[in-house]
Amino acid sequence: ATPAGGRLIAQGRPGEALQVVARGRAAVSVRTPAGPEKEVGESGPGSHAGEMALLDDAPTSASVTAATDVCSFRLTRDRFRAMIEGNEKIELRIYRVVIGTVLARLREANARLAAMPAQAAPGPPACPGCGAACPEGARHCPECGASIDV
User: Fold this and answer.
1) Rounded CA gap, 67 and 72, in Å?
2) Which whole-number Å values give the CA distances from 40 to 9, 46, 75, 114, in the listed order?
3) Count of CB atoms situated within 10 Å of the CB of 54
4) How far is Cα 54 from Cα 31, in angstroms, rounded to an integer?
5) Residue 90 main-chain phi, psi, to 5 deg
6) Helices 88-115 and 77-84: crossing angle, nearest 10°?
7) 90-146 per-position pLDDT tens digit
8) Are strands 63-66 and 37-43 parallel, antiparallel or unpaired?
9) Which end of the chain has the least Cβ crowding within 10 Å, N or C?
């Protein structure tokens, strides 16, 4: 059980497990380039999060925080791999569910992007090292000296 406000998954951390919500609601959020988190979705009973952690070794792409008290089931990567090893039927079913979820989220994100108003031309480039705004055409950041791809 995770009390309201508790983290089920933290963005940018090594993915460890799939979380399946049995009771309660959780908010899904991502950090913006400016730093604060922005809510991008929610998970309720029967929904799952962290499935990408079972498929690759990349850091988690979002945070999941309990909006209410949440009761969830946790399937670790090791248990998942042991469960599907040698059982192609289970593996295929699970991959179909995961792929369906990822595709639905991609379609939803595309629809949100299409509905956003057009933005003005981007400002000066940001330094890949420190994030500071750099003058147009600069080859090195005036703040930290990092090389800027032109």
Assistant:
1) 13
2) 14, 18, 23, 15
3) 21
4) 22
5) -65, -45
6) 130
7) 888 888 988 888 888 889 888 888 888 776 556 666 777 777 777 777 777 777 877
8) unpaired
9) C
Strand bridging mode 7-9 / 63-66? antiparallel
Give long-range contacts, CB 8 A cutoff, 24+ apart: 138-146.
Answer: none
* DSSP element (H, E) containing 9: strand 7-9
Token pair 């989220």 is found at 105
Between CA 136 and CA 126 the distance in angstroms is 10
The single-letter code of the amino acid at 84 is I
* Cα(95)–Cα(32) distance, integer angstroms: 29
End-to-end CA distance of the chain: 49
